[in-house]
Fold this sequence. Notes:
Membrane topology: Multi-pass membrane protein
Protein name: Integral membrane family protein
Region (Disordered): 307-372
Structural class: mainly alpha
Main location: membrane
Pfam family, one: Fung_rhodopsin
Amino acid sequence: MSATAPPPLPGAGLPDxxxxxxxxxxxxxxxxxxLITVLARLWVRLTMVHKMGSDVSLTYLPSFDFIVERINQDxxxxxxxxxxxxxxxxxxxxxxxxxxxxxxxxAPDVATMGLKINFVSQAVYLWAIPAVKMSIGLFLLRIAPxxxxxxxxxxxxxxxxxxxxxxxxxxxxxxxxxxxxWDPTVQATCWSKGTLQMLSHVNSIINIVTDMFxxxxxxxxxxxVQINMRTKASLICIMGLGVFAVAAALIKSxxxxxxxxxxxxxxxxxxxxxxxxxxxxxxxIAACLPCLKPLFKRILDSTTQRYGKSxxxxxxxxxxxxxxxxxxxxxxxxxxxxxxxAQNQPKIGRGSRAMSKGNSNEDELALTKPASxxxxxxxxxxxxxxxxPIDSSWWSPTSPRMRV
Length: 404
């Protein structure tokens, strides 16, 4: 009587492919961009807006005022970014311990540790995504034009958090002993694969619907608000970037059907990890961009002042406003005209009036007298120091103190 042969390990007969670099590249890239946008948001809030406190009040749900006063949109975003960074911190060792490879090619202790870290990553991203939605919802509450939109936002936010808690409990209670998820030698009973996949699909559908809600709601909500049309359009488009989070959630749902069918969880979770991170970090970026408007405005204004036409015009206007004198014009032989103009000359005293009268004819003659072809033109710059009060008694056209 021969002993029954043990079942083959997951991935047996398949090539030893490695997709860990794909996981790291996607997660590190999306998390890094999200981190940059969050840091820029906090910099704007602290240095330009000078406000990190509560700016939202759930007027129609007074019982939540205490919570909102302490967890406003900025703090909710900080929590979401912290969870996203924690997800990155979990994914890196997960790849080190075999994520992106078939279990059959891993040592038993390595595969056990990789499966344990994979379970932790599910819990981290499970809370990171609703934290992003809470930050977006708190932002939209600030600009909600009426009670109906506020009720809708509050209802979706409360539902999101309650459902996330339900999903977290199902994650913890799916087996009588969770150790069986990473150690097959443990004796325990778990829910059927069909039940687990059904819960995963329901969770994915709810994520897609709520992502779409927060991405599309700004359009009808701001349509009749009396604000600048360009500001309204830009805000709607920026908030509409949440559609990319919807796309990531849709792609993620496509990989749920095959997840865990063969027990090769470290290999099957490759695409799920990539797109869960993309969904979370894309939502963070879309939620932070509207808060960066003061920074974009400063950059555009600075660029315009350096390279735009308005900067030269404004400089000229400032110059003309600082020095305003009589305007002279004359036409030479060629029919061209020459102008000399300065504005807002301060009234210095009698001496200046005498100089104006005494030299006006000479100035006009100098400007109207045509120059000979071989003439040499001399330009003289006159600098007048007005930093101290001027005593008009010593001023005269022939005064030796006048610096030329």
